Amino acid sequence: MKTTSSIISLKKVYKEYLLGDGSIFTALKDINLDIYEGEFSAIIGSSGSGKSTLMHMIGLLDKPTRGEIIVNGEDVAKLNDNQTSVLRNSYVGFVFQQFNLLNKLTIKENILLPAIYSKIKLDFDPDQRADMLMEKFGIISKKDSFPNRISGGQQQRVAVARALIMKPQLILADEPTGNLDHKTGNEIIDLFEQLNITERITIVMVTHEMEIAQRTGRRIKVLDGEIISDKK
Amino acid sequence: MKLDKELYLLLKSAFADFRRDKIRTGLTSLGIMIGVFSVVILIALGLGLKNYIQQQFESLGANLVMILPGSGFSGGNGPAGLAGGAEFDEKDVTNLRKLPNIKYIVPVYVRSASVSSADTQKKVTIMGGNEDIFPLINIKAESGELWTKSDVDKKAKVAVLGNTIAGDLYGKPDNALGKTIRIEGLRLKVIGVAKKIGNQERDGAAFIPYTTTFGSLNPKKTFFAIYLGIADQNVVNSVKADVQKTLVKRYDKDRFSVTEQSEILSSINQIFAIINLVLIAIGSISLIVGGIGIMNIMYATVTERTREVGIRRALGATTRDILLQFLTESTVLSLFGGIVGLMVASLVVAIVRNWFPVAINLFAVVLAIGVSSGIGIFFGVFPAKKAADLSPMEAIRYE
What transmembrane ranges does the database entry give (chain B) (predicted)? Predict the structure, then answer.
């Protein structure tokens, strides 16, 4: 797939932790990575390889010890906590392995939550957009249900709808099929593929399943905090 | 619109959490409930006592000036101020009669004694006075009649009984009429029973002519006090000055005091204001304990909901959003306790009102609502800050 411009760029990114015994653990080492608009990529690696830390950096949930993370031409490592939250709200949509829906809110309210936290004036009506997404993902009939009353596959669709509500530049999916059976997992990947191809939505997915990773256009392999291969 | 929606969802989340653990919510609010309940009840009691005293004073009659021994009640020493004071006598009454603007002059002999009817014995307050005591302190006959000037002049052995004591002695107040009572050997005929006035002392008194006490009851022929009824409120101060001048000729000025009813009332009110403050301070301790309970639970809630905080932060909630969320919850929790406490207190007050003039005023309501929301915010800030300061990345990984 031909790409256009980079929507996030990591330059010489290091993440180091000071351990209890005074030694330093390096979770990420000299990461140089660009994610391009319209890509569907997978970050793969075994447990403890640093792939989750990398995902947290891309998702602006964590800051590097050294290096730059450039989004829209700005080094986000220099933003304060609130500025990061505001940017995260509009720039990235998360899909988690555990779905991470709030059980006390209805499906529709869960989907609307990022819009409620938005600090910018939106150029769309979140209510209508939520209805449109639920319609599209076949969960409209469940809009007033609570997350613990619907199936895992449906919950993950709600999570995808929630991730899309703010029209983000990037969808970050952390092991999105990890809690689903094979068939439902494949359906979610189908959904991602469809979103990527038809709507050119950029998706970065963390996974340890090679079979799923093979379905993406780019595979970034992480080992011991370093990118050891990056295949398109 | 968006803010409304955010507030709606904040409240909805808060109530969903409360519903999920009703027992914990109830117990947490209980602390505040008890605190608000006790503060409101104490304020109501304080107000009730004040009302009660006020009613008692009002029943004494208007434009009443009292000449009392010692510093009276106004020196701030309470009844102790009466000790070592002047003992007034008929000469004082004669001297005071020469002064202008005085409508009634009543020498007052007061003491408690035992009163017996044919078959029972009770405690009674003897109130010796002249015929003007009745209009001065608003005593009217319910049955029979009040004794007159000629009874005073003749030292007649007659008595008018307060409504309560008449009932206590004879079953029904009216039955007392025409009966003979004995007070320490003195036999008196009951010629009238007074209407009930709601003042315990007056309703339990036996009114007799002061001259009748001059014998076994009051061999020294002295009076505890002299009550003056002033014709016009505007001349009260000049009458007080005249009285002062007249009495100082016979007594040292420290040995008597000339007091208006309103002065006594205001000094009693001052005492009550202090007592009330002390009571509220004691009640407030339970509010603080309740607040600490809320803080404790909110800390536990923050820990339990770390992952939720992480999810919200990942979706773009700022630290302020999280702070607001937990503060809303602690405030709702505390306010809930406060409102229930206020309602229970109102119920108790409504019941007690049948016997005692307790009251809830706007101050108590504003205090209850204000203090309970204040406690929610104050004790909620620390846990909420803890939640807001969680790192989004660590929070979302929290199991």
Answer: 27-49, 271-302, 323-352, 358-382
